[in-house]
Amino acid sequence: MVMSEFKDIEQQLRTRLDDLLQRTEVIEDDLRHPLDADWEEQATDLADDEALEGIDDVLRAEIQQIRLALLRIGNGTYGTCAVCGDEISHARLEARPIATRCIKCASA
């Protein structure tokens, strides 16, 4: 595949990456807040922090997948199945831009 075919997907990935980075920054700022002196408030804050850390982990995993997809676009391997080496359909890449396997290998 010619990498110029993926300019639209590359732009979508970059936009999504920017959005995710902003969201993780907001979460990190929220997690840095000091604990309240009230024990009940501390318990609530700690539970909230645990949920935010889980969300942050999911966002960071997606950030990593997007960065790897952008790297593959940059080095010319984007759209090639990591398992069998066949071409990943453009429709699959549009639906799941971070895909590393063709539909056949992904469903196996």
From TrEMBL:
InterPro entries for this protein: DksA-like_N, DnaK_N, Znf_DskA_TraR
Protein's name according to its UniProt entry: DnaK suppressor protein
Record domain Zinc finger DksA/TraR C4-type: where: 76-107
Keyword Cytoplasm: no
Zn finger intervals (dksA C4-type): 81-105
Domain DnaK suppressor protein-like N-terminal per the UniProt entry, residue ranges: 10-73
Key words, A-Z: Metal-binding, Zinc, Zinc-finger
Transmembrane helix is among the record's keywords: no
GO molecular function: zinc ion binding
Pfam families named in the record: DksA-like_N (PF21173), zf-dskA_traR (PF01258)
Native organism: Altererythrobacter epoxidivorans
